[in-house]
Hints:
There is one protein chain. By secondary structure, the protein is an alpha+beta fold. Among the domains are: 3-37 and 494-635, no CATH class; 238-296, Regulator of K+ conductance, C-terminal domain (Alpha-Beta Plaits, 2-Layer Sandwich), CATH 3.30.70.1450; 316-349 and 353-438, 2-Layer Sandwich (Alpha-Beta Plaits), CATH 3.30.70.1450. The protein has 29 helices and 10 strands. The chain has helices at 3-10, 15-33, 38-55, 77-94, 99-111, 113-128, 133-151, 156-170, 178-189, 201-222, 255-261, 298-308, 315-319, 321-325, 337-340, 343-348, 371-374, 376-380, 418-426, 445-460, 466-479, 485-491, 494-512, 515-524, 532-547, 552-570, 575-584, 596-605, 609-635; strands spanning 59-60, 63-64, 238-243, 267-273, 276-278, 291-296, 354-360, 383-388, 411-416, 430-438. β4 (267-273) and β5 (276-278) form a beta hairpin. α8 runs antiparallel to α10 (201-222) and α25 runs parallel beside α27 (575-584).
Amino acid sequence: MNATSAVMQQATLGAHGLAMIVFAIVVFAVFIWDRWPIATVSLFVLAAIPLGFVLAPLADAQGPVDPTRFFLGLGHPALVAICALMVLGQALVVTGALEPVARRLSTWVTQRPRLALLAVLLGAASVSGLINDTPVVVLLIPLILAAAARARVAAGAMLLPMNYAVLMGGMATSIGTSTNLIVVALAAGLGVTGLGMFSFTGIVAVAAVPAMAYLWLVAPRLLAHVQPRAEQLSEQVFDAELSITEDSSFEGQTLGEAFGASGNRLQLVELRRNKLSIVKLPSVTLRAGDILVVQGTARDLKELEATLDAPLHSLREQDDAAGQHQGGDASDAQHDDAADDGAAERSEAVPSAMVAQLVVVNESPLVRRTVRQERLAERYGVIVVGLRPRTKPEGWERQSLADRMVRGGDILLLQGKNEDIARVQRDGYGLLLDARYTLPRQEKAWIALAVMATVVVLAATKTLPIALAALAGVIVLLLARCVSWDDVAQSLSVKVILLVASSLALGDALSVTGATAWGAQQLAGLTDILGPNWLLVLLMGLMGLLTNFVSNNAAAAIGTPLGVELARSLGVNPEPFVLAVLFGCNLCYLTPMGYQTNLLVMNAGGYRFGDFVRVGTPLFLIMWAGLSYGLILQYGL
């Protein structure tokens, strides 16, 4: 009798183990019930488990169990990695690093959404077989979010299926996940040495066919209720002007080419040349000095500005108030001396941190005056890039944006630094709406891309643990000022942090009380009743359930020797049983804490716990059945 058999025979379910099984079932039910916030339930779990071991102490082979050990999840490498990766993803967003790719993907999502989703699923699954799952998901999350925002569709229908496709691809090779490496290494130590890098790729590929069809055709329907995270800027339409300059990339090109480059989102109201309106023919050649009078949402306007390389404002027009209206109005000269100092410096450096909406109040100094007369750019370093009138005018306003008379109730679209925009409100010009749009810091985009690429390479090549690589990447981003501490705070999710810490505590408690070992022993006790094929199916199912509540690596450490022992006791080849453990430890579809990428998409897509159960359960059953049949068929069980 070997050590593994001895351990299995000695596993008993005491009062502590029984209590933990009941507690885990109750917690799982409460998560699915979804009546209380996940963060609240997670905090309760994190407090209840240590308290239970204080009230009912437990001693194991090493001595009394320290109740504070269940707090160690707050410093666990998995949690550090998840938090750092969320910050890295936020850096790609705030710098606009993925905008060019997102622009192309969004066009495809808009025109052919089903094909776009299929391409994402197949691409993600293919890549994850050779690269660790987590970096793949980290790269795709901001890309899909950006593409969905541009296409005006909910990202929830794509993010979770993409994540599951990555997990499916990751189980196809021995290097796809760290869990696979652990299972293969443990099996080799137990004498099972025939598993190569692509030994089981064919089995996974066949099982993945119906699973991919489910993720492509059914899963998005099950996620149709998922609401996207609140947009930073409401979808109000503003009047605006795009200026074609000598440096614009579309200077000398036709209006039709501009329409095509914008994805036909250019809602052109008027084309002005030398203050005269000209016919908007697609064949008209754009020249320096032309003004495109357009309408669109704030996000659309900023995207058009980037796509057409045409600024949404003319600082010369908005800042030359002193020269053109010096004596026009007594109120024009009533400026704060402090505001006048350094005005030229502010006008040279265009504020580009924030776009915000300001409702002009009736008592505002702007009422019945123009933006040019009030000189907001000079006084505050804030420019007006759009205007939405309180009431729709009978005809189009022919004046330029800087010369249009402002009325109470109008909404101005302001661009500038957050503190400068706040000063505009503080000085009584209007009330700021909550809707904000942070402009990408595109000059830092290459740094964010380089850092992300370096982290992916270091993690994929196992040069550094992903937690350490990602944390170092965050430090570089902070030092390079790609992200601020506000960005860091915005990227982190208290819900995810508490869920990770509580799930690690729950898994540790199930293990230390012997509950997981007892479950494995019950399966081993069925060798006299069931044949090898059914035992293999049950082993994979047990590992699949276990891996959704304890870490994948812990499940692998428990399951691999169990699988080898079962096969040898039955007198059959142990390889399929080792693969059953490997596949089961990758079936982490049922809970958000099943795998760290689940938590990443949960935070990004706004999913609830029940969404993982609803979408993951059919996928779990499909893959369980397909992989089991493939193993039985290939190994002749």
